Every structure is written in structure tokens, then in C-alpha cells.
Structures
1.
Amino acid sequence: MQVLVFDRREKKVIKKVGRSAIPSYVKNPGFLIWLDIDNPGTENMELLLKHFHFHPLDIEDCQSIIERPKLDEYDDYFFLVLHTPLFVKQTRRLVPFTVNSFIGSNYIVTVHRGICKPIQNTYEYLQEDQSVLEKGSGYLLHKILDALIDHSFPILNKIYSNIQSVEDDIFKKPSTKNVKTILLIRTNILTFRNIIFPQRKLLKTLEIKDMDFLAEALEVYFSDLVDHIEKIWDTLENYKELIEGVHDAHQSLLSNKINDIMRILTIFSVVILPLTLISGIYGMNIGLPLMNNGFAFVIIIAAMVLISIGMLIYFKHKDWI
């Protein structure tokens, strides 16, 4: 758990705030407090329930594994559930990472399971630059949401890089090995879309909300967040079409490769067929032409070679090979 307390009178961050001191800053207009909890265990949740007086159902949502993005409005605070994409290196898949936020007049509480890199970076940034803290909890909320949304852009760039890489691979050498990579990229794109889609409406709703800690001047800031998430959605739509096109191209190239193999094998079979016929006839134990000729074997082999060359010339003339 990390605690950031900003003294509005002294205009500075208070260092080393202990757990026991947190209740004295709650709903104290002289301070702005940001409580970041990365372990929603019983002790931490009891702290929120006892001193912040959050609704028990919201506390329960913080402890659940996954919740749909939503915005609950109460008399003196908002409860916001957002998702950000998390890349799991072991499986190479994207999964939704849940960030729960409570926003009041002089506080923000973020709750999530494990380290959240965008939030950690924002926390460290505010230790150095405190201009956002001077403006209040609404601007701090915007800063946190902006970090969570911007976290998606490097992932988008990585997905695009993977699409280009597999596209180059299939045109160099189409193979069934590429199918797994294509399906993995497509799965990640669909997962990403499922993460982003419900949050588009949520941010638009937050943009028009009217609360004391959400100043009217913040509307343009939240509008910018809406633009960012719409840009992410449009990019994912383009990537979805791109990977579908790559998949179709791969299937077509693979099909053409198989057709070429079958054509070559068919040509070999057709060329060998008359040779097999000749060898089969001369393998019979009956009287045949050239049986008493000392050069019979050479003549038969020469005939087979001429027949093979003649058939290949004919196939070439017909543009079959």
C-alpha cells in the first residue's frame, strides 16, 4: 500500500505517512490524499470501510477477481471500475487488469491486485511534479486515467509489429507454423477490443458528470480521454481487418503451395505410368520383340528416356509445367 498526502496550505507532499495517520486526512479539505492498494486483503478493506465509509458492495467488488467496467455514483463519492490490458509473457496473451477507484472531494483510492505499472509511474511522477495535486482530486483522477489509457498505445504498437512480422514470414515461406502465430495475434486483438468496448461509454458518462470535485473545467480533459480511447478502438478495428487479411492471404498461399505440389506429383505419376507399363510388359515370361537382341536392355531404356522427354516437352508446350 502506498500513501501520498499533499498539504494544500504548505503546497508540498508529506513524507512517510503511517497507516494510523490516514484517518486524520480523510475528508479534511486542507489535504489531498491518494491511497493506492495493491493487495485488497481483509485488513486494507476494513480500513476503507471504517474510515472512508464506502458502500459494502463496492468493497466486495474490489475483492472479486473480475468486474465489468462501471461507474457508481453516491452522495459524496464515485466508484469507478476500469480495465487496462496486461500482457502475460508466459502465455503471450493479453488479459484484463482491473483497477477500482474511489473519488471524493479530497481523496482518491485505487485498488488493484498486484503492481500496476501506469499507476506506479504516476505515483513516482507526482512525487516530483506536484502541480496536478494543487488542482484537486478531479485533476488527479484525470492523471491516473490518462496513464491507464496511454498504457495501451505501446501494446498497440507491439501488436502492429507482430502483424508485420508474420506478414513478412508468410510471403517468404507460407507454413502451417504461421497459423498459430496468426491465431494468437487475432485472439489478443479480440481480447483488447473486449477490454476497450465497455469503457468507451463509461468515459463519455464520466465526461458529463457534475460533482463538486469534478470541476466544469475538467470536461475538456475527460473529452481528451474519450478521444484517446476512441482512437484505440479505431486502431483495433483496423488491426482486426489487417489480421483477417493476413489470415486469408496465408490460407491462399498455402493452398497454392499445396496445388503446386500436387501438380508436380501428378506430372511425375503420368510420366512414370508408360515407363511402368513397358517394364511390366517386358517382365512377363513370354516371347517378346528384341528378346534375342544383345542390346535389348539399352534399346528399352533409351525408349523410356525418349518417351519421358517427349511427355515433358508436350506438358511444357501446353504450359502445364
2.
Amino acid sequence: MSEQSVADAGAVTTEDERAGLARAFEQTPPLFALLSRLRTRRVGLGYRCETGEAETLSWSSGRTVKQPRGPLAYASPHHPRALSELEEALVLWAACGPNGITSADIPVHGNLSSMMSWAGRTIPAADGNACLDLFVINDAGTHIYRPGEARSAPIEIRGSEDYGKVLAWYRSGLQRISDRRPDIGWHAAPEETRAVDMMSPSQYNVNRPGSTWLIPVSDVGLDWVNLLFSCYEWWGTFLAKPEDFSPAGCEIWVKPGFLETGWPIPAFDEMVACQHAAQAGCLIENVRLACEALGLGAWRLGAYSTDLVLGGFPEIATGLGFRYLTRDAARNPMAVMTSDGLPGVKEALVVPSERFPTAADAVRHVKELRYRDGGPLSVHGNYAREHGGPLKADVMEEILEHPRTHISAEWVQTAVTETVQYVVDTYGCAPAFTNPVHAHVSIQVHHVDPGFYRRFHVPGPDGEPDALSPQILDHFPAWHPGEDDPCAGGTQA
């Protein structure tokens, strides 16, 4: 989205929207006050909890399920209430929205050459990349939140005149990819089984009507190749065969002053995967804090089959519809399921695939992302230089012209390509020991049902259970004036 379109979209907000944005930025509790009460609140309006009653998930897979009755038996008497556009826009911006141009405080002798973008977001990213996208599931369908990499300044939101950008990014950046929720529900499993639950026993209310389910999805393959460049250019390490720690296809470059220490391929794959787990974790925590501030419930989900959610088991559920490759079992020692993404929406770097048929294609693509015209390290049309920061003009010029800002020698690209080709030849694809697409954790946001907590939790000093924060108790009058308030009426037995 261009700067002008951001400004134009931000200018159309109503007085109610402006007031809501100001309330979020100026009147919510400070960080440490939020942390003092931060809790997971899993029960939302329209949810159920171990009632022992059968229920058909008509909004999802169409299955009839029953969670055995237990001590927290509860069926919400309220209809589901979806988040408003403004509430969802604020939560998504907190999750991973644009917030300016990165600080670029990496020295040229400290691997600045790995940078892939100057576009800052509310979450950190290895090398400034945008490998992680946020899939958004709500009552209107399935979407991807992708407000783009355009940034107008080191800080995008400096005051009230910029608050409207949050809605502008939401309206232009939320792209619908389906008009329905994915067919994911509790107790998803093969038809012939009864005890298996691929969504885990604790996810009974996953994907409920009224909820907004946020799923961070990462292109681990892109980062995998980019970090290989860093290893070979800066660290002096090379990918090694796990069986004997000998070089994986780059033998000619293993010598003093070039590549000296081996890194077993499975361990390298795990390290790259952890980078994305950390990034998704930051997103999850941002959402939790935003919901605490707004008086919404936020429930982190995990311990389920990622491949089920993505679409790796279409006979059970189509999920998000990601495409999976067929791998040779004899060359897949970890039995890893490998996706190359959702065509036309979120395509991951995998070799071989339709987009990257050869190792050379993938390696060339990653290098060009850095140095193409308009790229983060390009001397031509450099975005950060042309948009006022963050570095002074003379410093930026010196950095862009510095030899250590660029891949120093042709052998580096050659060695990376040879290593990728070895992994493909040996294991059938690269990356091989981790799925190039990661979506291991997610978070669901909803309006809290106060009745559950009033029934089962100990009252606090004010007579309300501590789980019902002032923001939750005041949420509907503040954010939905004129609507029925499920918190009205005080405590109940």
C-alpha cells in the first residue's frame, strides 16, 4: 500500500472510529499494569465446556461430538459476538502490523549483508524478512493479513493524526481467500478411529463462530537459504552430513580461511525452525497484551497437528488448503511432511518445486531479494534511503557502497548452491528435516463470557472474579455502546 493510499484510507474513519483508536492508544492501561493481570481466558460468548451434551459442528467439519461432563460443565447462554472491524484491526496491527523503517543498527562487519527488508513490524524478524504471514479466520471467512512493506518514516504512528493508519492497513491488507471458515473442529481424526484427536483434547472451542482465529504461517525455506549465505559468508561453518559430519556437497571450500566447522543438517534445520517459533511467539504475546488492553479474551492454541490445519490430511479436513509434495519415504528419514505453500497466496521456498525447480533458482532468488533495484541493500532506488531514515544520508551511502555489505565472492553463492543441491539429491528436497511451512502455534480471540468465571472462580475484593478485569467488565459499554452487555447484572451463582 502506498503512503498516499494509507493517508486516504485513514482519512475516511468516522468520529466513532477515531474515538476508538484514541481510546486504544491513549486510555488503555500501561504495559506493567497489563502484565500484572495477563491471563488466558478460554471461554467466550457461545462457547461450551465439558457439558456432556452432543453437539454437531455445522460451522466446521459437520461432525457430532461430545465432551464428557466434568466439574466445569458450562454452556454459554449468549449468542456468539464477532469482533468489530475496529477491534480486529487493532488486534491484527498489534500482532504484526507496520510500524516504520527498521533501525538498521547492524554493522557491515556483523552480517548486515543478510538483511532482506527495511520494513519494520511490531514483531522482530531474522534479517528483517517478512517470511511470516498471518492467516485470519472469522465469521466472514479465511483471510491473510498482508499490509505490505511500504513504510513512510522510521516511526509510522507518531500521534493521533496517524491512528487511522491502523484501519487503513486492515482495510487494504486483509485479503479474503475463502468465504468460509476452514473445516477444522474438535476431535478431527480419521473416520476409522475413535480415540485419536488431531486437534488435541484441550481445543474443544477451536474455530467457533464469533471467534477470530489467528494462525502465523512462516516460510521457513526462505530463511533457510538466507541463513546458509550467512554461514558461508560470515561464520565459516558448513552444512555437514549427519552420519559422519563430512561436508554436504561443498567439500572444495572446506579449508582454512573459508569453511572450517561442520553443522549437521538436521541441527541446522532445527535452528532455522526455532527462529520462526520465536517470531510467532512474539506475535502471540503481542495479541495477548492487546486483548488484555481492550478487554477481549485471548487463548493460545498449540499441541495440535500443524499439517492437519495447513491441509496435509485432505481426507480428514482441507484446512487452509496448502499443497503438499510427495516425498520418497526411503529418502525422508524423519518422515517430514513437506508443503510448498498455498498457490497464489503463500508460496514457500522449496527445492524442487514449481516455483524453484533447481537449487540455483532458489539461491539466486534469495540473493536478488537483497540487491534488486529497490531492495534493502541496493544502491539503486534504496527504499530506506529515499524515505528519510533511519540512518543519515552520508552514513547510508557509505554502507551501501561498502564491500562487506555485499556478498564478497562468487564462491559463496556457488558453495550455497552446491549444498542445497546435495540436500535435494540425498533427501529429495530442501529443506529436508523440517517442513518449509510452519504454523505450530496460533491464538484465538473472542468476547469473554463472564458467566463462566462468575460461576466457578473465587470473587475478588470487588465481588467480581479476578479473571474479569476492569477492561472486560467495561468492554461492551466502551466498544459496543447501545448493544446488550453480557457483563451487566453483576455476579451470579
3.
Amino acid sequence: MKKRHVLVYVSPANHARLAGIGRCAREEGWQLTIIDRLARQPRGWKGDGALVTLRDNPATIALVKSLNRSAIPVVDMSRNEPEVKVPRVSGDHFEMGRLAREHLNERNYRNLAWYSTCFLNVHRLRYEGFAQGDNIARWVLSEAVDSDRLDDFTVYEKWIAAKVKKAPKPLGLLAYDDADAARVVGACLAQDINVPGDVAVIGIGGDRIVCENQQIPITSVEHDQGRTGYEAAKLLAKLMDGEKPPKKPILIPPRGITVRASTDAIAAKSRIVRDALDYIRSHLDQPFGLTQVAEHLNVSRNALSKMFSEEIGRTLGEETMRERIELAKRLIAQDSMTMAEIAYRTGFCNPGYFSNAFKARTGVTPKNFK
């Protein structure tokens, strides 16, 4: 059987997505030609199929239309050019935005904003998932600054800082991706805006290099690029075998959220409630309840219970359990402790109780979560 030759145009050249494509290519025995920049149509390429990320690049659009005319199968791994008719496998961008909102709402951030450098179709999908029909503030740099000044850090910093300063606090902000989130965090710190106390910032992508190497590490929705690349390649294999394309885009759900310092807080206006939250987070390895927290803050149990529930929307006990489970997730992901050690580190009296409580909150046991 003739070895198939597949063209891969992925921009930017995301390692995880390319790795997913490569895994399928090894299974199928393909020859790959990989390019990450396309100024014009490749000349002289003769192959059997193509995997692309369509953007507002005339050369890419011309390439896809040319391949379509030649009946060479193409699969798009983005959703930036929906008017170009081509089968698609893409991350579920609406769901990414929805997850980000759920994360911020769970931390009691009710004032919300969106930031992106530009606003293409994928940006729109993420924003709509985040907004969920509400009129969420939308700050787009390219709509406010001339294109030749988008890379001017002085202009950008003043612009985003002015937006954030005028916004109601505490503010939860979703950036289009991790790079945009890093720009927002950097601008806030330069202007002495507290992150996450005044502004909680979350990105999308799961880029560890970007998220973990900041003054304040950035929380991110994990875009499953590896699975997207693999499933796109598997669809291309079916198309090259003569199968009909799916009628709708195949959407790959995000893998969840990796919580880091940029959103690692609960928004509260009351000083007593903020102090109660601080107590909870600093005593997660110990058994305690409403009585102990009230005594520490020198307030009555009833007063604390009422203030906490009214402002946070959960009881103090519910918030304590939520914090214990979130800490457990982070410890499990680090893969440096046994389940028994994690149970005691998160304040559970024994591993069995920890496993039952974890499953009740997440739907899976700690071992299955790992």
C-alpha cells in the first residue's frame, strides 16, 4: 500500500497538538511535511491530505480552497474561518469560556470582564461561553489601539490598567489565552493592582511555561491540544479512505482547570469573611468547624454563619470542604505524595473518609482522578 503524504500547517506550532498528530501518523504510517508559516501556497507539493489551522491568512485560505478543488481531503483544527467549508476538529471554545466563568463564580467573583488582543471567531466563542448571555465587559486591544501600536507595551499597560482601575471590584477577568493573561497580570502589578485580591485573572491554553514563570503564576483552562491533534488526524485518515465528512465540527472538551495563584482567592468585601477565609485556608491540615473559626475571630457563631453564607453563597462548612478537595486535586497532580499523605495533609482523619468525600464532590475516587 502506498505511503500517504500529509501536509501539516499548524500556526502557532503547538507542541501538544503536533504530538497528537504525530501519534496518529505513526499508527497510520504517514509521511508528514510540517510547516508553521505560510506566506503563499506551497509549490510542487503533491500529497494525499492536509491538516491546517485556518486563520485570517489569505495564503492558508487559498491553499484549502485549492485542495478542495483537487478533491484532496483537508481537516481544520481551528474555527476562525467558519465561512470556509471544511471538516473541523476543534477544542470546545464555548465550554472553555463557560468553565472559566464557573471557576470565578465559585470564588465569588461576580464582576466579570474579558480581555483579548484581537477578536476573531474563536475569541467570540470563548467570550460567549464566558458571558452566557450577560453583558460582560469586553476589552479588545485592537479595537482601541492602532494596529501598528499593538506591540507598544507603554500604550498597552496604560490602557488595560485604566480599564481595570475603573471596573468594580473585586473583578474576575478571563483573557483569551495564557499569553494575554500574562500581559494583564504584568500590567496590574506595574500599576500596584492586587492580583488576585482586586483582580483575579484566568487564561486559556494550559501553557505551563507561560503560566508558571510569572511573578504570580496564572490559572488556566486546559485546552486539550494533544487530543485535538490526534482526533483531527484520525478524521483525516477516514476521509482519505473515502468516508463522508461529519456534518458538524467535532468538539474536544477542555481537560479542566489548573488553579494557580492568579485566582487562588475567594472574593469577599467583609473583613470578617475575608479573615474567616484566611483561617480556613491556613488550617486545612487540621480538624475545625464554625465554632473554632468564630472563636478565633471573636464573633458569635450565628453572626459569622449568617455573614459568610450571605456573602459567599455557601456555608462555612461547605467552603471548607471545597477548599480541602481543591487542595487534594493539586497535591494529586503533583504526584509526590501517597493518597494517605494527601488525606492527612487535607485534614481528613483517614484515607477511607478522604476517598469517599472526594468521590462525593468530584464523581471519581482520588486514584481514578490521578
4.
Amino acid sequence: MNIWQAIVLGAVEGVTEFLPVSSTGHLTIVEKLLGLQVDDPAITGFTAVIQIGAIAAVLIYFARDIWNMARGVCVGLVSPHRRNTFEFRFGLAVAAGSLPIGVVGLLGKDLITGPLRNLWWVAGALVLWSGVMVFAEWAGPQRRGEKDITLKDGIIIGLAQCLALVPGVSRSGATISIGLLRDIDRVTATRMSFFLGIPALTGAGLFELKDALGGDAVGVPALVVGTAVSFIVAYASIAWLLRFVAHHSLSWFAGYRVAVGLAIGAALAAGTLAAT
């Protein structure tokens, strides 16, 4: 991988990580178009590691919120009468919701980095999960805000996050959609998706670091540049997405997802694009 390829992939990661369009799906598509071997362990590792740049953007953008939640959870654990605070309840929900994807990701690593790194999976998931997103917008009353989040919400949305291990589903698309079906408003579900991504993506990036640095496919310069570009672009996309979801439905993204999924499926069926 050369530097310009790393820049392109870092930009794709930064734009798509928090949008409900599947960053892994888009990275798989772009990597294939750039002539990279998408199921190479080093390329798969690169895809995971540059997500740390996007998470660094979240940590800075939401620094005060994250500090308040972390402090609230720590204080609540040692002081029972402080467990009714918003910071403790919300922070605990995020912490609990972060556990399932870690377990599933470790158990299913070979499947995730192997057979699922296939453009047929990406195309199918882009189309099929779009229907879930549209349904969630239609069926979710969105009557509950951040102060109404419970531990049960965190666990259920955290389980939904595991679906994003299938490229094309989208981590934000899965978590926000299930949040809406839990009667949570769109902005709150989006913010929770950001927070749930911190341990999930950081853990995945650190775990895959050895693969990204293994062999000659990537290299340290490309990894550093891709992560840095991901951070810069992701920071801008966070602010944009929060403004967008305050006034627009997730259904706006569904049409794009379906179009991309069908285009990839058609290219695969015609033989102009290889699945791996």
C-alpha cells in the first residue's frame, strides 16, 4: 500500500465510520477498486487500525461528556446514593453495551476477517439493512431522551452492534436503528452510537495492529497517514451528522445504501468486479 492509497482509505473511513452506510463495507469496496487484496490479513488489519483515528475524533469532540460519564460511573460504584445520577446510568449502559461486540468479535475473528470479507456480503447487507433502517424510522415513536436510557437499553443496543461485524450492515446503522425501535429519539441514539464505538473500535484496532504491521502489504508510514486522515475527516463528519439527524430521517441514507449495494451486486454478477 502506498501513501496515496492510505490517504484515500483514511478519508473513506473518516466519512463513513459514523454515517449509517457501513465504513467496513465502503473500505472493502474501495480497497478492491484500488487493487488491494481485501482478505489479506494486513489489509484487514489496516482497515481496523485506522478506525482508531475516527475514535480519537470522538474522544476529543465529546471529551467533557466522556469525562462526566467516567467520573459518574466511578463515583457511583463506590457510593450507592450517587447511582441515580444521569452520568452513572448512561455511563453504565454504554459500558455494558460495549461488552457483547468484544466477545463476539474475538470468537468470530476468523469468519469476520475471512469469508465475510467478500463483496457479495457487502452488497447484500447494504440492501437488506436499509429496510431495517426505514422500518425503524417508521415504527419508532422516539419519545425517550438521554435521561431515560437504562441498562437494558445499553445491553440490547450493544447486542445490535455485533451485527455490524458483517460488512455492509453498518455499526451506526445497527445501533441507531435498534435505538429507535427502543423508543429512543434519533439524536440520543446517534450519540449513544458514538460512545459505544469507543471501546469497540479501539479494541479492534489494537487487536489487529500486529496483522497490519505484518508482512509488506501496508507498512508503518501508510498506517500512520491513514489513521491521521481518518481523524481529521471523522471530526468534521461527527458535527455534520449530529446536525443532520436532528432534522432528517435515517431513510435518507437508505436510498444511497440500496443504490451502492445493487451497483456492486450487478458488477459482481457481470464479472467486472471480483468478490475477494
